[in-house]
Amino acid sequence: MANVNRDDGFDEGGTLAEACVGASAAAYMRHWKLDGINELPAYFEHYDTPVKLVAAPQGSYAAWKLDRRTGGWRPADDLVDDVIGGIGGEIYVRSADAFVQHVEQLRGRYLRGEGEIFALYERVRAIGEQAVGAKRSCTSEEAALIKGIRRRTFVMFEKQLQQAGDPAADPTIASTAS
Length: 178
Fold this sequence. Notes:
Elements: E1 5-6, H1 16-19, H2 25-31, E2 32-33, E3 42-46, E4 49-55, E5 61-66, E6 73-75, H3 80-85, E7 91-94, H4 96-110, H5 116-133, H6 140-163, H7 173-176
Antiparallel strand pairs: 1-2, 3-4, 3-7, 4-5, 5-6
Helix pairs in contact: 4-5, 4-6, 5-6
């Protein structure tokens, strides 16, 4: 469970999201001191599903989760309390890099199609299958190649989502990942 401490004297009743209705995302983060979460955007794994909490227009915030059927983003504001208040167990804070890698691992596993992105997903699958076939882990070179491909496919996929009007698409996450 996250170590949640209020420093503003507000009543402890209600949910985390209710406590900041109408408050800016920055005020939300200032009002709650959360282990591992200092600013937005923040990235999570919620029961093996990538979730991101981002600043939204008018100073509010929004949560988005990966849709495994489409590879796009679905609104997930109903998960805010869960991801922030339930860190531990099956909910984890993730770095931007770990988030990007997890999103692309799932897109590569669940999505099929034509074009450059899907050819790159197939290349990652082939590298993994080769290692499994040889009964070994990926070499450091193979792991680095997979990581680089996934970062590239993340940017490509997110740009396509942006062009299609997905409001949560953000290819710049991969550039902030280290």
